[in-house]
Amino acid sequence: MERNVSVFVVVVLILLLVGCARVPDSQQIKADLIGHTMGSMVGGWEFVSISEFQEFTINDMSRASNIIEYDIEMLLEDIDNGKRYRANALVVYRKTDGKWQIVSIHQKSFAEDV
Fold this sequence. Notes:
By secondary structure, the chain is an alpha+beta fold. Helices cover about 25% and strands about 45% of the residues. The strands form two sheets. Strands 3-4-5-6 form a four-stranded antiparallel beta sheet.
């Protein structure tokens, strides 16, 4: 009987851990941004490699149920020409099927770093 209770407790704990997916941290956000575009083709950025991120700071995070908004500052380096750009963006995640996924990237500012 004690063994059945122990197995039940372990199963419940595993289910709880799976259901409570961790919120994305800075490393996960950078990885998730790859393949996405921020802003317009003129004055915007297409994320293609983790190596583009020279600096990455989460200024603020707000969460409501299954939505998280991150206010992020970045120093990005173009891997083709070496130019650097400062950017501020609002990255919005939604939890769907137990996983956090980017649903939008709003470019707040973007300028060449001189």
